[in-house]
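forwarding from the other thread:

> can someone predict this with 2-oxoglutaric acid?

sure thing
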Amino acid sequence: MNEYTKGKGSLNLVCCCYICFRETLHEYTTELEKLNEILLKAMATCLNLEENCFLDMYGEKENATMIARFNFYPPCPRPDLVIGVKPHADASAFTYLLQDKQVEGLQFLKDNQWYRVPLNPEALVINAGDYAEIMSNGIFKSPVHRAVTNSERKRMSLAVFCIPNPDREIEPVNGVVNEARPRLYKKVKDYVSLYFEYYQRGRRPIEAAII
Ligand SMILES: O=C(O)CCC(=O)C(=O)O
Ligand SMILES: [Fe+2]
């Protein structure tokens, strides 16, 4: 069993309440839409590709999906046994995470070891998701992460996932496939549906896209 499959369940209470918070979130998500475009362009620029290649594949922001997820983690008497959110990588192009200002809990997996993400109340944590990994043919990695619990204090976070429209076909863009770097991923469509199927079975959804 590896670190990804270890987590069985999660303690967090997830609240997908984009509708209720629509007005409050509107300004924030509009800014994130712009930031998402900037990052998709930056991905291309730093690979010396045509600036809009990732953005064109991602599609117009009007048709894309943005999901805001509020996570609430109550204090847990046995944080050694109970995880907050089990290990996963996000099914987004990018995820924008507003962490709790006072209580730490997010960790990323690298070389089979967990690393804490320190608190920074002034900062957003930006995370490349599986769509970024697929479109970049694995150059940008979608990291596995988890949230741990603690026995003393409740914790909250707000994750906003930027996801292409489910009708769009997503695959590695032309400039990132060549002889030296063969194509690693198939074309995917409606990856989010497939994502949850794999997630529930304790498997990494991106496996389904690997050639
Ligand atoms: O609560 C956190 O810090 C992380 C939450 C997370 O990874 C998610 O909602 O996908
Ligand atoms: Fe996540």
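The two ends are 23 Å apart (CA to CA). thats all i got for now
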